[in-house]
Write a structure and sequence with these properties.
The protein is of the alpha/beta class. The chain has 15 helices and 13 strands. Helix 5 crosses helix 6 and helix 10 crosses helix 11.
Length: 476
């Protein structure tokens, strides 16, 4: 049986593309799709992205929606080729840098401008994107209706409530679910909803937002996607920042039609609660059942959002069983350490000594550690690894085969351990750590990532942020 690489090479050469120099599998996402970056040594041929997805109906939706949105002037990656089975696509390469990567640098005017720009594009998807869209190919459903709402609410029930053994009356909960769904469906549902509208699905390409992973879209209400973006748990946006973005969106609504913003706000709080229940269900399944660490780490952020919401925004209608359960989730003791992780925040950078230099510490701590990786074996000098990074398997395998790399990490971890333990005892709030190499692409990225994994595992009470400063300049 042919491998993915062999099938992709055959597809490309059959359509006149040069033979690829490399086909590298990209880190997995939460879906069943597998992505690859295709690089060429031939001058003038840009890199490409390939996707493989065995779910045919989802691929048909992606293909149809892509061409429709491109014709509307919306910023989505072009599909250059597909194979006869509709399972392999060759797409435009938008790079690796997402809005979420920008979020990790902290809230500032630049980030706010990006979010406002994203909201302006969202309005176009919602209003222009729905006109003429072939909803017959939408997957798995063409409309946000009561059945699809109940799917998500039951997902929350089975994969979060029951996995946490929260006590509830199933019959009363079903009554609340029905009443809640009916209230949400009073919102105008004649727009396009993206379904998974969050910062990891927004690429920053040529300093402008582009949009991916919209193939689960359908017809529905405006609030769904706004809430998805603003209440993305791992982005952890502050309330002031979030409200600033929301006000910009509301102005855009009123510019389209008078009183649109007023009508939008009538059901907006309900969608915030719905989205939090939905993501908790997803985190329960992907994290607690499938044991994917990214989703487990997101649970305390979602709970923190829920705690704030319960304090500031009441449920829009009387829902006694749901209210009881949401308060129970807000008081789950197993996430207490992670929810109070503001006690110590550890910011970890990978950086380039030649380009950005040692990153400045903008906290009151005044500085931290900077470890020089330039004495370690350099994968960047090997042709096969030049266009890869310290996040990709071949580079990781190369570095992990070198005893000096392990010794270097062990030594730096021992030094860092002393400070983290001491800072926790003294209730310090910030520690910055950087790993630098020549280009900020291979050794520093690998080391910073390993440290992040180490601290998360050893010190669950610590809030860890990992930022790869040179990711915008990595080869694509």
């Amino acid at each position: 049986m042919k491998t993915h690489s062999e099938k992709l090479k055959s597809l490309l050469t059959a359509h006149g593309f040069p033979c690829p120099d490399s086909i590298q599998e990209l880190p997995p996402s939460g879906s069943a799709r597998t992505y690859f970056r295709i690089s060429f040594s031939e001058t003038g041929q840009k890199s490409l992205i390939a996707s493989h997805n065995p779910v045919l109906a989802e691929n048909i939706a992606q293909y149809s929606f892509t061409h429709h949105f491109m014709n509307k002037g919306l910023k989505v990656p072009e599909i250059y080729l597909k194979d006869d089975t509709y399972t392999y696509f060759i797409l435009q390469d938008l790079g690796d840098y997402t809005l979420f990567d920008e979020v990790l640098k902290g809230e500032n005017e630049q980030l706010l401008d990006y979010y406002k720009s994203v909201m302006e594009e969202l309005l176009k998807f919602q209003h222009k994107g729905i006109v003429g869209l072939d909803l017959e190919v939408a997957y798995p459903t063409k409309k946000f209706d009561k059945r699809s709402v109940m799917w998500d609410l039951n997902y929350f029930k089975y994969y979060f409530l029951k996995t946490h053994e929260l006590d509830f009356d199933e019959d009363k909960l079903e009554n609340d679910f029905n009443a809640f769904a009916d209230f949400m469906l009073t919102a105008d549902a004649s727009y396009f909803i993206y379904r998974d509208f969050q910062s990891r699905n927004i690429m920053l390409h040529q300093d402008s937002p582009w949009f991916i992973d919209f193939q689960g879209g359908r017809q529905g209400p405006l609030a769904y996607d706004v809430v998805s973006l603003l209440y993305q748990a791992k982005a952890n946006l502050s309330e002031d920042f979030r409200n600033n973005i929301l006000q910009h969106y509301l102005k855009g609504l009123d510019a389209i039609q008078a009183d649109m913003a007023k009508n939008f706000m009538k059901t907006y709080p309900a969608f915030i609660y719905f989205r939090l229940m939905q993501v908790l269900g997803a985190y329960g399944f992907r994290g607690l059942i499938q044991r994917k660490s990214h989703f487990i780490q997101s649970i305390p952020f979602a709970i923190a959002s829920l705690q704030y919401l319960l304090e500031t925004t009441p449920l829009p209608i009387e829902l006694p069983q749901i209210s009881q359960l949401l308060n129970g989730i807000a008081n789950l003791t197993q996430y207490e350490n992670q929810q109070t992780s503001g006690k110590l925040k550890v910011l970890i950078h990978s950086f380039s000594y030649k380009k950005t230099g040692v990153p400045k510490d903008n906290t009151s701590n005044g500085g931290g550690f900077a470890f020089d990786c330039r004495a370690l074996p350099n994968p960047g000098r090997i042709d096969a690894y030049k266009k890869q990074t310290g996040l990709q398997a071949p580079v990781i395998e190369f570095l992990e085969s070198k005893t000096e790399v392990k010794e270097f990490l062990d030594n730096s971890f021992r030094i860092i351990d002393q400070s983290v333990s001491n800072y926790l005892e003294r209730q310090f709030t910030n520690l910055q750590i950087g790993y630098g190499c020549t280009g900020g692409q291979h050794r520093s990225v690998y080391c910073a990532t390993k440290l992040s994994e180490y601290i998360i595992e050893k010190y669950p009470e610590v809030n860890v942020k990992l930022v790869h400063l040179e990711s915008k300049t990595w080869p694509v």
